[in-house]
Specification:
heterodimer; A: elongated; B: alpha/beta; 9 helices; globular
Chain lengths: 369, 246
């Protein structure tokens, strides 16, 4: 059993190493894509999850809270006494925006002193981030004018905005995790799709199927040797992101590498599935491209925020592996969070790997039977 | 014409009413035949007569719609795994890896069939010696050599039966002759050879042949028997007569 699979994997590794041209293209692709996309991609949010910090509630803060709650874009998910109460929510990605009033808010208004309010935004997606803070400011300004109109003298509320996780609002920081996802899917899915459909076209697959090699062994044997290549791709993409764009690495690089490998496995398995369902190498290539590239760019939250998509697409995005990987990569790179906050996404990726592998084995067997 | 009560051990293949349908189309229609251990059996038929479908059932690539078969004494439906270890197969398409060297191809198939490294080394050395090959990339070999190599690789794990699906398609007459010498050598070592071909002179080299027409076996026997039975001078003529009924 082991030697059978081992012989098959050895052969796959030989294929990979022998075709120098393809190998060079595959190794350089992530570098070129990260650099090109990184430079090229520089760029209505609903259901903003709002956390309120109100150390001493009074009529003014309650009125503002009412107005924020009434604004249809906001949903208050937590109310706390101090910023440290809601900090964990931010890290876990359970709040998008925090509005924090300073103590004695109403008293300061009455004494005509500027009453300060802090607006903190999760800006790991900078577009969404700046939109969200603008909404909050609009509500606060409206209240300020309302008070000013009632009283004889103008009052002043001084909002201060803090962009969390991505203080400089670099859109490249947002894109890099998505880009890594795109490159990995593309390269991984294409590699296995091409290599397996080539065996189909040349008739070698038939010989393998007649041999004692089991379908699952063929699939595992196809996927694992390419993981080495995928790993090289991850490294290239990360190093390019770091050197060229100074994308921060706040979290564990090891965890990011492990997650990237896991994500590559999903893509490799998709490639195998595509190859076993399509009649020729050419069709397999096209299908692999379409099946991975479009969802990974459009439905993953890489370019367009999922939050502003129609419900149908939001639901649909759940089956796109890149959507989960991007949450993981952004979490690790930009927020510096660990597995304790990303285990759910990780489990989804593991589940997807198993699902696509088994689907590939099944469709394989269906061809044989 | 055949021994009526041959013991199963003497029979490499026993097919009983083997049938395969694709939708409404019956590609193989209740074929019943047997192949004796150690013989060279020619499986003839025009294109589309159902030869390839029949072979694919016998080697476990296609499941029969109905009927039974025993291959190497094992049940086709329940003992597919064991059968796979005991058969070799060479398809119509050339099926070694062109971007690997001769030895790398041998190492791959040896490994898949569970040979030890030592067995692989020894058999590879014998193979290179016999074929007069050096360890080049397979893609650089001329077609005739490739076919001979593919046949040798199909025999690498010393299968009880080897299935050859049009092994000599597109090769020159001299190489075809050499190829048949290899087939005889394999049969002499006790391997049963099940071969399909379009060349009727090759049919004459077989111990026994069957001719398939429209999914059925129209006739079966030794070339000599068949010529006498149908009163034709050659298998070629018999083939044309059966394949194109007046």
């Amino acid at each position: 059993m082991i030697s059978t699979l081992g012989a098959f994997m050895t052969k796959e590794v030989r294929h990979i190493l022998r075709d120098r041209q393809t190998l060079t293209v595959l190794l350089l692709m992530p570098l070129i894509q990260v650099v090109l996309f990184g430079y090229a991609l520089r760029s209505d949010v609903r259901d903003v999850r709002l956390a309120i910090v109100d150390p001493s509630p009074d009529y003014a803060t309650l009125a503002l809270r009412d107005r924020l709650q009434a604004a249809r874009r906001f949903r208050i998910v937590a109310t706390g006494r101090s910023m440290s109460d809601i900090e964990p929510l931010f890290r876990q990605g359970r709040a998008d925006l925090a509005v924090s009033f300073e103590p004695q808010f109403a008293a300061r208004l009455e004494s005509r002193e500027p009453a300060r309010v802090l607006i903190a935004v999760d800006a790991s997606d900078p577009n969404t981030g700046s939109t969200m803070q603008a909404y909050a400011r609009a509500v606060i300004t409206a209240y300020e004018q309302e008070l000013g109109a009632k009283g004889a003298q103008p009052v002043r509320i001084a909002p201060e905005v803090r962009m969390r996780f991505n203080p400089t609002l670099e859109s490249v920081n947002l894109f890099i995790p998505g880009l890594i996802a795109l490159v990995l899917t593309l390269v991984s899915a294409l590699m296995t799709a091409i290599s397996l459909s080539r065996e189909k076209e040349r008739g070698t697959l038939e010989i393998l199927l007649v041999s004692p090699l089991r379908p699952w062994q063929i699939i595992v044997g196809k996927v694992f040797p390419y993981l080495g290549l995928a790993f090289a791709n991850v490294l290239t993409a990360l190093v390019a992101a770091w050197l060229v764009f100074n994308v921060p690495f706040r979290g564990s690089v090891t965890l990011l590498l492990v997650e990237s490998i896991l994500y590559s496995m999903v893509s490799l398995a998709i490639g195998v599935l595509v190859a076993s369902l399509t009649p020729s190498q050419r069709v397999a290539m096209l299908v692999a491209l379409l099946a991975t590239m479009l969802p990974s760019t459009l439905l993953s939250g890489m370019v367009f925020p999922l939050a502003s998509m129609p419900k149908v697409l939001q639901v649909l995005s759940n089956i796109v592996p890149a959507r989960w990987f991007i949450v993981i990569a952004r979490g690790i790179m930009l927020k510096g969070v660990g597995l304790e906050h990303l285990w759910k996404e990780t489990l989804v990726l593991i589940g997807m790997t198993l699902f696509f592998m088994m689907a590939a084995v099944r469709s394989f067997k269906a061809r044989v039977a | 014409m055949t021994a009526p009560l041959a013991a199963p051990a003497d029979l490499a293949i026993v097919a009983t009413d083997l049938t395969r349908r694709f939708g409404n189309f019956t590609a193989v229609d209740h074929i019943t035949f047997d192949v004796k251990a150690g013989e060279v059996f020619g499986f003839l038929g025009a294109n589309g007569a159902g030869k390839t479908t029949a072979i694919k059932m016998l080697i476990g690539l296609l499941e029969p719609t109905s009927g039974e078969a025993k291959v190497a004494g094992l049940d086709l439906r329940t003992q597919t795994e064991e059968i796979r270890r005991r058969i070799g197969y060479m398809s119509q398409k050339f099926s070694l890896y062109e971007d690997l060297t001769v030895l790398e191809n041998i190492a791959l198939y040896g490994g898949i069939y569970g040979l030890t490294d030592r067995q692989i080394r020894e058999r590879a050395a014998v193979m290179l010696e016999t074929l007069g090959l050096s360890d080049d990339l397979v893609g650089r070999l001329p077609l005739g050599w490739k076919q001979k190599l593919a046949f040798s690789v199909a025999l690498l794990h010393e299968p009880a039966i080897v299935f050859l699906d049009e092994p000599t398609g597109g090769v020159d007459p001299i190489t075809r002759r050499q190829f048949w010498e290899m087939i005889y050598a394999a049969a002499a070592r006790g391997t049963t050879v099940f071969v399909t071909t379009h060349y009727m002179d090759e049919a004459e080299y077989c111990d026994r042949i069957s001719i398939m027409v429209d999914g059925r076996i129209a006739t079966i026997g030794t070339p000599l028997e068949l010529k006498q039975q149908w009163k034709v001078p050659s298998i070629d003529e018999l083939f044309v007569r059966l394949a194109r009924p007046s």
